[in-house]
Amino acid sequence: MQPPAGSQVSRVPAQRTPSEQLPPAPAAPAPQPPRRRMRTVLTVAAGVLALLCLGGIATAYVWYDRASTPDRSTPDVVVANYIQSFLADRNDPRASEFVCRSGADTEEMRALRDDLVARERRFNATITTSWEGFTIQREGDSANVEVDLILSAFVDGISQSDRQRWRFETRQQDGWRVCKAERS
What we know:
By secondary structure, the chain is of the alpha+beta class. The chain contains four helices and four strands; from the N terminus they run ααααββββ.
C-alpha cells in the first residue's frame, strides 16, 4: 500500500545494516543446573538420614536397657538370679542388684560362699553350684522361696555333692528382691 501523498514517509526502501557490521548476537547463556531440585533432594535425604540415625539410637538404647536391667519379675526368678550371681559367678556387684535396698540379711549365704572358697583352696578343686525344687509361698508384696542348693565337686577322682535346703524371704521393691537368706 502506498503512503498518502504529502506524507513524511520516504519512498525509499528501508536500508538494513549489513550483517557483518551488526554487533554479535548475545550468546545464549548456558543452561543452569536445576539447583532447586538438587537442594530439595539433598534436604529430603538429610532429613531421612537424620530420622534413621535417631531411630537407631532409640532402638539401641531400648535394647541396651532391656539387656542390662536385671530380671526381678517373680520371687523364684530373683532368687535364681541372686544364687547365680552370688554363689556361682561370685559377682557381688551383680548380686547386689537382687537384694533389698534397706539392708538384706544374707550373712548365712556369705558364710556359705566363704566356706566354699576355703574348701576350693584346701582341696584344689572347683565347687559348682546348682539349684532346683523351688517352693513359693506368696502373700501380697512378700514371698518366701525355698530351694535346694546342690554343691558339687570332683576331688581326687571322686565326685562329691551336698544338697542343702535354703529359705529366701523376698519383697516387692521395684521388682522382687531378696531380703533374707537362711538355711532351712
